[in-house]
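Before surveying the methods themselves, it helps to consider a single example record, giving the amino acid sequence and backbone structure tokens:
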Amino acid sequence: MSRPLLLDITPRGASCARTICTGLEDIRDAMGGSDFKPEVLHIVGVGDAELSLDFAALAAGLASGARVLLVGPHAAGGKAKEELLGPVEHSGLQISVFPHTYQRYMTLHHNAEAPQLVVLFHPGLDIHYFTWYPCLKYWVDSRVPVLLTAYKRPAGLGETPALVKTLLETLVGSGGGAGLFVMEEENPHTADDGSFNAGYFVFLSSQGALPILPEEMYFSIYQALSKVSYPFAPRVGYLDVSDEDGRVDVENPRLLASIAEGALRAALS
């Protein structure tokens, strides 16, 4: 029996829908009380949580008949396909699924209508900075608002909203009508006892033009992560190792938790 395009609502899916709607309220407030309701929404890096969204709740924050595109290599049961599935109608929304990377979507559907909002649920920029950078640059250059969320691990181990805020401020800046402009480190619509979608952030464009290659921003990212004592940096690896022989410091619980988290997220990416 084939897997359905969308899944039944789950607590994580409900959290995702309500986070988007609350984020849209913050965007409208930041725009001086505008009536901004996207007609085209792209949700990227999709897994089961996004496929189990509460689409009825989501519809309340979008324009009537809005088009929602779910993109990610795990959006069809873990089988990546260069095929646009749908649309299907759900709660007045037109929902399509592209079960592959956003880079492939842009290549194959470069004439498709542009999104008015992009959403990433816990993309793990600290681990996958180089993977996400081409997409982030594209959205920055296109001046499309991007909402993304962060995990909050127990006892502050691994990713936290504060860490994601630091990374985004380093990447796109904040203030002055560009860069990071919504910073909510305590999302009222979390799941999994407050760890899933713990915080959310919205940025629009950047304080300065992003370079073509991610390596040109990398040193700033590396420094920002080092300053907050985060024991991992993209590509470099884990920052806190024994000076004597290069082995992992097994007495450091923050390091061990981050290693476990990084391995899991890399396996799922």
